[in-house]
Amino acid sequence: MAYYLLLLSFVLVSSLFLASCATVAPIVNSNSPINIYGVTTLPPQNGDWVVIAASGYQSSLGSKGINKNESHVVNVSIFKLPSLDSDKKLLEYIVSSRASTPDTGRFENRENTENLSPLNGAVCVKYHSRSTDTNAKIQGGNASMVYESIGYNCQHPKSNTVGVNIEYSSRYFEDTGYSTLQYDSDVFFNGIEFTEF
After folding, report:
1. Going by C-beta distance under 8 Å and a sequence separation of 6 or more, which residues neighbour residue 13?
2. pLDDT number for residue 178
3. Do residues 105 and 96 touch, judged by C-beta distance below 8 A?
């Protein structure tokens, strides 16, 4: 699906942006809610986060990782869903959409799980993916890096034809690892509120 290719491209470009330019972007106030159509949340509470993109349909924030060229990105966006009349059909649709991303040969999949999992009153498909980016763009050239993401694709509780993607991702070197990714993402996801449009 074009949406997921666009999202992946956006996250990769955002990661490169963070690695090189985060010092000039304004830091987000951790107590200021972020609002897009139908969704409100607080920024992650761990570290300094900057705005990468903001509109009525999407909010993306980034933070530098432990080492140079490493980064974290949180993204909340809405997208159009077809009319699906069961949780099972939502799962099938999301799994199929995520699998339709073109194989460029750059990413080697290491782990991918997808399952139905509710989130704050919404029916969702939770995913956890880890891959090796064999040609990650970094300052001074290219490198092999790990790209790991945990997220939800939800059917908005107020409109079943509006999808909500919420993702927390990290890009890091193999030796670094991020043992707190699951905890940090859970804290962020727990703050998601589905609101009226």
Report:
1. none
2. 74
3. no
Q: pLDDT tens across 118-156, in order?
A: 999 999 999 999 999 999 999 989 999 999 999 999 999
**pTM value?**
0.86
Q: How many CA atoms lie within 13 A of 70 on its CB side?
A: 15
CB 90, CB 152: distance < 8 Å: no
CA quadruple 48, 74, 64, 115: dihedral sign: positive
Q: 136 near 127, Cβ under 8 Å?
A: no
H or E segment to which residue 11 belongs: helix 2-21
Burial of 138 (0-12, 13-18, 19+ CB in 10 A): middle
How far is the CA of 122 from the CAs of 53, 90, 117, 125, 158, in angstroms? 25, 12, 9, 10, 9
Q: Looking at the predicted structure, is the pLDDT value of residue 22 above 80?
A: no
Between 3-17, 39-53, 77-91, the lowest mean confidence (pLDDT) is in 3-17
39 in Cβ contact with 192 (< 8 Å)? yes
Query: Is the distance from CB of 54 to CB of 74 less than 8 angstroms?
Result: no
Q: From 183, 151, 153, 147, select the one nearest 167 (Cα to Cα).
A: 151
Query: pLDDT class for 12, splitting at 50, 70, 90?
Result: very low
What's the start-to-end Cα distance of the chain, in Å?
25
CA 147, CA 172: separation in Å to the nearest integer? 7
